[in-house]
């Protein structure tokens, strides 16, 4: 079974002369333990596709299935629960709450889902340890570097143990060194934990780390190719700023 699957997905905004066909029949299947990169020019539909895969919006036509469940058949509350429990999101701008510590940001999704404070804290620290950021657990975002903030954001996405991790330009606000560190971390999650990741990126260097590269243009999949990757065991180098 696929973790996430798009079947003939269409998305239209507006009507009449203002009508925009953002997606015009997209088919994608992603298996567990795959890292898939989506690339395309501005206006190609890649961000719309990521929004639909995450259940934030529903397609005009076609189906989005997460672990075999058609999200289009769910009501708003059910889709919210699905996102909260099965999908982790990583954003270019980190989206951390500025008045909360790193640990509080990571534990928040669990507490919103009714997990006790003690259990949420335990799981948050485990997720932060996974991305080697526990040494900043009591710091607020403004006192951390961009790379550190993104690692906190990744820990927040991982703390729910998601079936699917969606990343929207995860290195877009980082310098090249921290961009490499975050990319290496995402790759490690796939190689060592069989995490399923779908990410939108404009960075070809980031895309080369994916198992598959999907190119989108004018609302259609232009190509979907498996990439040959040379497996190189190298340090992730997460300890710096």
How does this model look, in words?
By secondary structure, this protein is α/β, with parallel strands linked by helices. Strand 4 and strand 5 (69-70) form a beta hairpin. A six-stranded mixed β-sheet has the order 6-7-8-3-9-10, sandwiched between helices. A four-stranded antiparallel β-sheet has the order 2-1-4-5, covered by helices on one side. The protein has seven helices and ten strands. Mean pLDDT is 93; it is low at 231-241. The N and C termini lie far apart (39 Å). The protein has helices at residues 46-53, 76-86, 102-112, 117-130, 146-158, 176-193, 204-207, and strands at residues 4-13, 20-30, 35-39, 61-66, 69-70, 87-91, 164-168, 197-200, 212-217, 220-226. Helix 3 crosses helix 4. The protein is 33% helix and 25% strand.
Summarize the structure.
The chain has helices spanning 46-53, 76-86, 102-112, 117-130, 146-158, 176-193, 204-207, and strands at 4-13, 20-30, 35-39, 61-66, 69-70, 87-91, 164-168, 197-200, 212-217, 220-226. With 241 residues, the chain is α/β, with parallel strands linked by helices. α4 (117-130) packs across α5 (146-158).
- Uncertain segments are 231-241
Mean pLDDT: 93
Q: Tell me, what's the shape? A: globular
The whole-angstrom Rg is 18 Å
């Amino acid at each position: 079974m696929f973790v996430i699957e798009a079947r003939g997905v269409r998305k239209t905004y507006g009507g009449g002369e203002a009508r925009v066909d953002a997606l015009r029949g997209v088919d994608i299947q992603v298996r567990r333990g795959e890292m898939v990169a989506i690339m395309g020019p501005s206006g190609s539909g890649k961000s719309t596709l990521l929004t639909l895969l995450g259940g934030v919006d529903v397609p005009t036509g076609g189906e989005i299935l997460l672990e075999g469940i058609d999200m289009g058949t769910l009501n708003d509350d059910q889709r919210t629960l699905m996102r909260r429990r099965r999908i982790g999101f990583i954003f270019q701008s980190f989206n951390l709450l500025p008045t909360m510590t790193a640990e509080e940001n990571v534990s928040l999704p669990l507490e919103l889902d009714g997990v006790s404070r003690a259990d949420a804290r335990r799981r948050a620290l485990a997720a932060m340890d996974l991305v080697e950021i526990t040494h900043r657990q009591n710091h607020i975002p403004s006192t951390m570097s961009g790379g550190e903030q993104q690692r906190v954001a990744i820990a927040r996405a991982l703390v729910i143990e998601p079936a699917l991790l969606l990343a929207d330009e995860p290195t877009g606000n980082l310098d090249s060194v921290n961009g490499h560190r975050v990319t290496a971390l995402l790759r490690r999650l796939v190689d060592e934990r069989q995490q399923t990741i779908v990410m939108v990126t404009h960075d070809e260097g980031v895309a080369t780390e994916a198992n598959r590269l999907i190119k989108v243009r004018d609302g259609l999949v232009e190509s979907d190719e498996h990439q040959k990757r040379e497996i190189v065991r190298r340090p992730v180098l997460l300890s710096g700023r």
